[in-house]
Amino acid sequence: xxxxxxxxxxxRLAGLSALGIATSARSADRDARPVSDRHAAAGxxxxxxxxxxxxxxxxxxxVDEDGRGRSIWDTFSHTPGKIADGSNADRAxxxxxxxxxxxxxxxxxxxxxxxxxxxxxxVFPEGTGAPNPKGLDFYDRLLDELLHNGIExxxxxxxxxxxxxxxxxxxGWQSSDxxxxxxxxxxxxAQRLTDRVKNIFTINEAGRFVNFGYGWGIDAPGLKLPLAxxxxxxxxxxxxxxxxxxxxxxxxxxxxxxxxxxxIAACVPAIDTPExxxxxxxxxxxxxxxxxxxxxxxxxxxxxxxxxxxxxPKFTADELKIxxxxxxxxxLNIYAPQFYIAASDKKPGWTVLPFPASRIGPEVIYxxxxxxxxxxxxxxxxxxxxxxxxEDKLAADGQVYDLDRVMFLRNYLTQLQRATxxxxxxxxxxxxxxxxxxxxxxxxxxxxxxxxxDFDTQARLPKMSVSFYRDVVxxxxxxx
Length: 480
Ligand code: FCB
Fold this sequence. Notes:
42% of the residues lie in helices and 15% in strands. The chain is an alpha/beta fold.
């Protein structure tokens, strides 16, 4: 049991080291309390919102039920060779039928907020036109269950499952018809659900689905558009966001809060000198020009227009005004640093350094919100997603000891606490994800969940990170 030590040797070693600690602690420090009692846990603000997140296509399943139309992800995942493990999300977590149990899992975490998404093709199977009479029934049930359990719903309207009909008819986001259709859908949902949903995210990760879906052909709808057309699609997405904000304000109850969730091109100062921090602020504006900057500033940066040249999007002054409709909050999805920045004597005053071999960089969750708050003068930021996949295996005793995830979360939350303790206005945190689910092109091969899911039996099992997160949430603090 004690490996190469005998029981007696072990006792002797343990005794000696205990004595060593006691001696040095006494001489170095006059506080009579044991060291372990003197460390203060690092607290978060009193009303900090702890939550977790999922999205419709990744968990719901039931793709043919209650009049749901097809989405571009149904088509894409059924196209051979697109998904790493050849899977699709026809069944996924079967959350459509198991939502009650899943709300129970959220409750067990002790969190008070849940970010989920609404499937547009359930509500408008053809993208526009007549709403499906049963389209919102599932969300009605889900909302009631959440509220009954004291969990505040945060709804996302677009987490990538565009109605296939819109893709077929007008080329999806290649047309501003889709921006308008999105606003109509947003207004309809707002009218129907804002008696219970007080916070709405319009679009999730515009940067990701535009570049991956319309530029590189990796995600649905799998297009590889030339730059000018890609920039135009990008423009229609931010326009769709702005129109949706206006529709929600027009049709939702007073007091409904609206924002968006973006995977900010997250920049970190390579070395945190004032010059590099300033350079990182400039870089953040430029590297997010097509999404965050235009939404929050109402104009495309000079750098973006200059760089795009003839491929710049076509737009009107009126559209820019719509795009910049005021938001109540900004959601940042933060997983890993994307750029390390240093100051430069040459124009534009900053430079991107070669990326380090290790992708670990928990300080990104400190810098990204700090810099975003400064350059765009934000007062309410949510970390709308953060988390990690890991090699989660069932151990011989049937448990999942996902210490990689625990380590990841401990480091990120330590940096997040550093941000809030300095007054960076991060008001809440949504851990991605509640449970393992369909991870897009990786199928079921990448597991991001706090709960392990057996996709054959649909059994949910808390991983070790559930205990970790529950403890952080309960104490509103990180560290012991
Ligand atoms: C984000 C997506 C989310 C999930 C996580 C891992 O980019 O918004 O759906 O795939 O990554």
